[in-house]
Structures are given as C-alpha cells and as structure tokens.
Amino acid sequence: MKLSFSSKNWTRLAGSAILAGALSGCSLLPTVPQELQSTVQTQAPIELKDVPFYAQEEFYCGPSTLAMVLTHAGEKTSPDELAELVYLPGRQGTLQLEMLAAPRRLGYLSYQIDPKLPALFDALNAGTPVVVLLNLSLQIAPMWHYAVVVGYEPESKNLILRSGPKERDLIPMATFLKLWERSENWGFTVIKPIDSPPAYVNAQNYLNSAVALERSSPENAGKAYQQGAKTWPQEPWFHFGLGNLAFNAQNYAEAEQNYRKAVGVYPDMADAWNNLAEALIKLDKKSEARAAINKAIALGGNRVAVYKETAQKIPAE
Fold first, then answer.
1. d(Cα 136, Cα 120) in Å, to the nearest integer?
2. What is the H or E stretch that residue 242 is in?
3. Could you tell me which residues are beta bridge partners of residue 288?
4. Which residue range or ranges hold the Peptidase C39-like domain (predicted)?
5. Pairing between strand 187-191 and 109-112?
6. Cβ of 61: how many Cβ atoms within 10 Å?
7. In this structure, which long-range contacts are made by residues 197-202, counting pairs with CB atoms below 8 Å and at least 24 apart in sequence?
8. How would you write the pLDDT of the chain (317 residues) with one tens digit per residue?
C-alpha cells in the first residue's frame, strides 16, 4: 500500500458585519498583552495600497475578502463568481473550510499563517494581505466576520482593514487582538505555487498547504512541492510528495527518483522506504524492492503492518 498525507477541517461560519461598536457591551476596553508590546512597538508603518476593495454586501464577507486577496495575487475574479464556490445560502455565510478550498480550486495555495501577531506582520511586511476571521460579539452568541488586513499605523496603533463597506477601516490594535483571539487567531494568505515561497512562510505550513492543494490540482501541488524542495532541501516530505504524484501518474521511474531523494535526506523515513519499494515493484526491480521494504520494516513504527503487506507483493526471485 502506498502511503500519503492527511489533514484536518475547519467549521466556523461567517456572514457579514461591521466593526463599529463591536465591544460596546464590554465594561473595560482591551489592551495589548504585555508579551506583544515589543512586537507592536517595533513594527514599521505598512500599507498595501494596491489591494483592491470590494464592499461586503450582506452575508458576502467571505466572497468579497477572497476576491480582494485573489485579485491582488493576479487572479481575474469577483465576489459574485467566488460566491458560487463558497457561499452557503442556507446558512447565510461561508465556512472556513470553503474559504480555504476556493483558492485551491483556482490553483493557488491557501497558506494558514501561525496564529500569532508576528506572523501577521511578517506577511504584511512581505507585501501579502491576510484574510482574518473575527468574532464581533460574545463567544456564547458569536458574530463571525472575515476581513482583509492590509496595513498598520504605529503612531495611532491602528490596523488597517478592508472590512464591510469600508475600504480603509481603522481598528485599534488592542480591539483587533481581542476579536481575532476569539477565532483562535485564524488567518490565511494565498500564494502562487509557481513562485518561490515568500519570506513569511515556514516549511511545515507550506507543506500542509501543498498537500491540501493536491486534492484539487495535483499539477499545481507538484509545482509547490518543487518550490518547497528548492527552498528547504533538507526536508524529505517535499520529495515524498513529488514521488506520490509521479506514482499516481504511473511515472514509476520518476517516483523512484523522488523517493530515493527523500530517504537520502532522511534515512529513517520508513514511509518513503515503503513507497520506494512499491515503485520498484512496478519497475520489476525485485531485489532492490526487497532491500527497500526490509529497511522500512526494520525501522518499524505504527504502520509496520502496511510495510509487511508491501513485502508480500514482491515475487520470489
């Protein structure tokens, strides 16, 4: 059995709202947490003025925010077109799962940033707008809302958002952090898979994005794996992903090459040894397949039973 990746889903729903008066029911105004004071104080002014604006009509904050970041990335689209992909009329909103899936259907990576303010600033500083999910009400009666963060003004300590009907919505940093915290600081960007990974991404999250893209666009996922392998040559999983794509396309010689690269980087990667054996079986390289699967079995792990099944496929010499 050839082994592959896995992922998880998100289920919050957001419609449309505006930020005005979001904390009016609170007796105390929020403050920036002490551990983030340095991050806020050292961030230089930034504003991505080239991010387009689409006013968020009622319940359309999902399609509108997607249109803004995708258009900025170079995609020709509109809120109405994207609504066909993500808007759920029965729920009058858009799930996080659909927000992440729509860019993938168009061939882009949906990259979930680390749920921290520094990660958001890193994306902005790299010239990338960030879609965020905010809860404008209380946890017991949430009012979910998507917005696009496009900048920060240090002097006023305001973040700059494309939000609701406002092209340039200023929100105090402390207020934003409180509203964002209620979604567990959920946010993402869109990335072209043919481009080198931008400076703000890390190998693990980029890999997760490429794996998710593979379901809707294997070709573009392959481009992302290639970029990942160039950027992080010591990470075996990008070679592993390329091997799986080649195997699925019945390009077994190419699959063998990529699995060998994976185990060359990380010899203790049992799954890669197993998949290498599978490719070698297809290429009728019996002795090499037996050597590969024996290494997988020797490494063991919770999938050793699968490795033993692979060994049973190798014909006797």
1. 19
2. helix 236-248
3. none
4. 50-160
5. antiparallel
6. 29
7. 197/227, 197/228, 197/231, 198/123, 198/126, 198/127, 198/128, 199/122, 199/126, 200/113, 200/119, 200/122, 200/123, 200/125, 200/126, 200/128, 201/111, 202/114
8. 777 765 444 344 455 444 434 443 343 568 899 999 999 999 999 999 999 999 877 656 888 999 999 999 999 999 889 888 775 555 556 778 889 999 999 999 999 999 999 999 999 999 999 999 999 876 666 678 999 999 999 999 999 999 989 999 999 999 999 999 999 999 999 999 999 999 999 999 999 999 999 999 999 999 999 999 999 999 999 999 999 999 999 999 999 999 999 999 999 999 999 999 999 999 999 999 999 999 999 999 999 999 999 999 998 76
Q: What does pTM read for this prediction?
A: 0.86
Give 77-124 as a 3 state SS string.
CCHHHHHHHHCECCCCEEEHHHHHHHHHHCCCEEEECCCCHHHHHHHH
Say which amino acid occupies 237: W
Neighbouring C-beta atoms of residue 109, cutoff 10 Å: 30
Q: Assign residue 18 a region (left: φ > 0; alpha: ψ between -120 and 50; beta: otherwise).
A: beta
Q: Which helix (H) or strand (E) is 260 found in, with range?
A: helix 252-265
Token pair for residue 36? 């983030």
